[in-house]
């Protein structure tokens, strides 16, 4: 409204134009900038171009997944004491497979992010492995190979009882190693003994070379026992590695427990809780007393030679055909048939050099005598208990006789 008088003359008009220009020139820069930013479609088109350029730059900068394997591809003497690890950057793993030249495969698992796969066990020594891995969204697989170094010195464990055998309820699982074991915990962790029906089974080290397993009480009749050896590449001593990886199964038969009372010179045989037979016996004399305690039959011979020199008794005897002999201790105690003593001795006098004797005949073929009958009814792993012998209890390590240790003492001998 302040410019209505401009129509009165040209002079006024010229002045007015200058005035208008002056007024427009006085508009704050901020106001001009505000008008400029809101004008026209040209500015909108420029903004869209910027977004497209940014997206293109981001797409160009995005990296493809990269897979890395440890041990490294091409390694020829890779360490076998660590697991195989597969990782991916800028992505996630879709699959991993590790196969060995020996036909084995290594199972493994992914972490929660899906970027790291670790094998559940270490690779074996002296083996070539192929690792095949694939990332999500990538068609091409990554394939690498490596070989582990071979070991130098090795050890094995010889076990009792034999695979697929049937034994008595007293049979422990006994393992004797060919090399002294320094790292007992590592070796014991690589060995498990399981029972069906289930029962706790614990290992006990008798020495650097012997490890036995047993439950708290005798096995139940009919039990299935499985020994699992996972000793391959387990370092038992410095630079000495195991080579076995196998499962061994054996069975427990009927329960037979025989009790020898050397005060009455009589043995009572009980099978599955019932008395099967009673036999007159003879035990060690006062100069050669028989070990007392719980003993397990560890060897059986229809006939065998017995020499006194092998048990530290000089040349007192040498009998080439002892019938129906069953070993009770490593040191030489047997329960066996005896054909050279008078039949009046059995049940009345302890007259042996430490063994338990039953009446028998030469040749081991007379089915009517006690020696034959007891041998025929027995099996490896049967329990023979000797009492009232006048001798101390046999050492648990002398034969398969760990039952002479309390459960607490037995467990104290475990390394794990």
Give the helix/strand layout:
Elements lengths: L9 H16 L3 H9 L4 H20 L4 E5 L14 E5 L3 E8 L7 E3 L5 E4 L8 E8 L6 E6 L5 E3 L1 E4 L5 E2 L5 E5 L6 H6 L1 E6 L5 E6 L2 E5 L9 E7 L4 E3 L2 E3 L2 E8 L3 E6 L4 E6 L2 E7 L12 E4 L2 E9 L10 E10 L6 E5 L17 E4 L10 H8 L5 E5 L19 H6 L4
Parallel strand pairs: 8-17, 10-18, 19-27, 25-26
Antiparallel strand pairs: 1-2, 2-5, 3-6, 4-5, 6-7, 9-11, 11-14, 12-15, 13-14, 15-18, 16-17, 19-20, 20-21, 22-27, 23-24, 24-25
What is the CATH T-level topology of the largest domain?
L,D-transpeptidase catalytic domain-like
Number of strands: 27
The CATH C-level name of the largest domain is Mainly Beta
Supply the number of structural domains.
3
What's the mean pLDDT score? 88
Shape: elongated
Content of β-strand: 35-45%
CATH superfamily of the largest domain: L,D-transpeptidase catalytic domain-like
Discrete helix count: 6
Q: In which order are the strands of the major sheet placed?
A: 21-20-19-27-22
Radius of gyration: 44 Å
Note poorly predicted spans: 1-46
Determine the N-to-C terminus distance: 103 Å
Structural class by helix and strand composition = alpha+beta
Fraction of residues in helix: 10-25%
User: Can you name the CATH architecture of the largest domain?
Assistant: Beta Barrel
The largest β sheet comes out as: 5 strands, mixed
């Amino acid at each position: 409204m302040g410019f209505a008088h401009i129509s009165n003359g040209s002079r006024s008009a010229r002045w007015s134009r200058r005035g208008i220009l002056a007024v427009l020139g006085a508009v704050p820069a901020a106001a001009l900038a505000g008008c400029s930013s809101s004008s026209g479609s040209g500015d909108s088109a420029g903004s869209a171009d910027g977004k497209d350029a940014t997206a293109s730059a981001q797409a160009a900068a995005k990296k493809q997944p990269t897979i890395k394997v440890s041990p490294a591809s091409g390694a020829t003497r890779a360490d076998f004491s660590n697991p195989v690890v597969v990782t991916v950057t800028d992505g996630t793993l879709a699959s991993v497979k590790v196969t060995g030249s020996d036909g084995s495969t290594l199972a493994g698992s992914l972490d929660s992010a899906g970027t790291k796969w670790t094998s559940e066990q270490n690779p074996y020594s002296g083996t070539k492995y192929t690792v095949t891995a694939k990332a999500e969204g990538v068609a091409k697989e990554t394939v690498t190979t490596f070989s582990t170094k071979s070991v130098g010195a090795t050890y094995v464990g010889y076990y009792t009882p034999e695979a697929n055998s049937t034994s008595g309820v007293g049979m422990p699982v006994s393992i004797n190693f060919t090399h002294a074991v320094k790292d007992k915990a590592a070796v014991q962790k690589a060995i498990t003994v399981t029972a069906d029906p289930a029962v706790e089974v614990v290992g006990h080290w008798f020495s650097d070379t012997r490890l036995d397993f047993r439950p708290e009480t005798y096995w139940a009749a009919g039990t299935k026992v499985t020994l699992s050896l996972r000793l391959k590449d387990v370092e038992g001593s410095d630079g000495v590695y195991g080579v076995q990886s196998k499962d061994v199964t054996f069975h427990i038969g009927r329960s037979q427990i025989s009790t020898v009372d050397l005060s009455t010179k009589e043995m009572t045989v009980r099978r599955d809780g019932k008395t099967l037979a009673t036999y007159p016996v003879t035990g060690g004399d006062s100069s050669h007393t028989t070990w007392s305690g719980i003993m397990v039959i560890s060897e059986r011979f229809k006939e065998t030679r017995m020499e006194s020199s092998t048990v530290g008794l000089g040349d007192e005897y040498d009998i080439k055909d002892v019938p129906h002999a069953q070993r009770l201790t490593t040191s030489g105690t047997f329960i066996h048939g005896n054909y050279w003593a008078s039949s009046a001795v059995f049940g009345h006098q302890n007259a042996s050099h430490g063994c338990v004797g039953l009446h028998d005949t030469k040749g081991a073929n007379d089915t009517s005598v006690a020696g034959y009958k007891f041998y025929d009814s027995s099996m490896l792993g049967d329990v023979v208990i000797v009492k009232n012998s006048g001798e101390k209890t046999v050492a648990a390590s002398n034969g398969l006789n760990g039952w002479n240790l309390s459960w607490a003492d037995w467990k104290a001998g475990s390394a794990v």
